[in-house]
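wait is this the right file?? whatever heres the structure
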């Protein structure tokens, strides 16, 4: 079928829901418009849920169950999607990240997930569970996704990864001295790889630091660039180059202002 997007149910719970929706629809020989008419939605809405661009609401999942005659199966699966600890937009970002040719990151206060050791990730996640911010199941989901993302860096050819860490990332103590020592070693080893660059944006950069929030930029196989940014409550994936280009320009400016990799590695090693 022309322009039929491939779905990977392992990308996220939302992707798994979309795959299940498509499978049920295909088994009945229905188009998205056919299903939409039976559910009281538009074909565009059904497409967005199938491809993971939109989460299934309780009403959507209930109507889908009625259309397919699946009891409450989709309603329960939809509830799991909504209960995920991942911010909106992030599962789609991860799908792109797993295939990106270039990855550019800027982080504040915490080492980026791609560069975290298992001990560091566990300390951050378990603290969130202890605070009641996420459930134990959500914590396990988060750790499993982090492990999958880190493993994706070992693909051939490896993606180019450029990371700028605010100095707060290496000053903040997480998990105790042993965890931090292992995490610093991980950063140093990562910086030695031929396809990576690690820089630190020192505190004295002051107002010249380009960003006040974490920023992720991905260059895809077709050389298009997408940007992902998030606050404490929501994430947003931006594909419009008119909006992405200023972010990319600011990132290049940050690279120029940050410490060189040699100076950055020295700071990381001595912290």
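ok assuming it is, sequence goes like this
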């Amino acid at each position: 079928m022309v322009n039929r997007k491939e779905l990977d149910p392992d990308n996220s719970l939302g992707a798994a829901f979309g795959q299940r929706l498509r499978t049920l629809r295909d088994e009945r020989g229905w188009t998205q418009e056919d299903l939409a008419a039976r559910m009281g939605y538009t074909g565009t809405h059904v497409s967005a849920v199938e491809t993971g661009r939109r989460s299934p609401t309780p009403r959507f999942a209930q109507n889908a169950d009625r259309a397919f005659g699946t009891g409450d199966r989709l309603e329960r699966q939809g509830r799991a999607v909504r209960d995920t600890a991942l911010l909106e937009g992030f599962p789609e970002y991860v799908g792109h990240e797993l295939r990106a040719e270039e990855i550019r990151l800027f982080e504040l206060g915490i080492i980026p997930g791609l560069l975290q050791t298992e001990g560091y990730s566990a300390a951050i996640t378990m603290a969130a569970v202890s605070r009641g911010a996420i459930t134990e199941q959500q914590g396990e989901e988060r750790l499993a996704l982090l492990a999958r993302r880190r493993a994706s860096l070992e693909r051939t050819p490896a993606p180019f990864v450029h990371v700028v860490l605010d100095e707060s990332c290496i000053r903040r103590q997480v998990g105790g001295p042993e965890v931090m020592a292992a995490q610093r070693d991980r950063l140093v080893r990562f910086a030695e790889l031929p396809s990576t660059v690690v820089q630190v944006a020192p505190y004295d950069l002051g107002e010249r630091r380009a960003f006040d929030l974490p920023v992720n930029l991905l260059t895809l196989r077709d050389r298009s660039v997408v940007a992902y940014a998030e606050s404490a409550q929501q994430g947003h994936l931006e594909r419009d180059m008119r909006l992405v280009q200023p972010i990319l320009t600011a990132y290049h400016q940050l690279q120029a202002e940050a410490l060189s990799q040699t100076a950055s590695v020295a700071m990381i090693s001595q912290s």
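The chain has two domains: 13-82, 90-112+156-270. so i think its the right one actually
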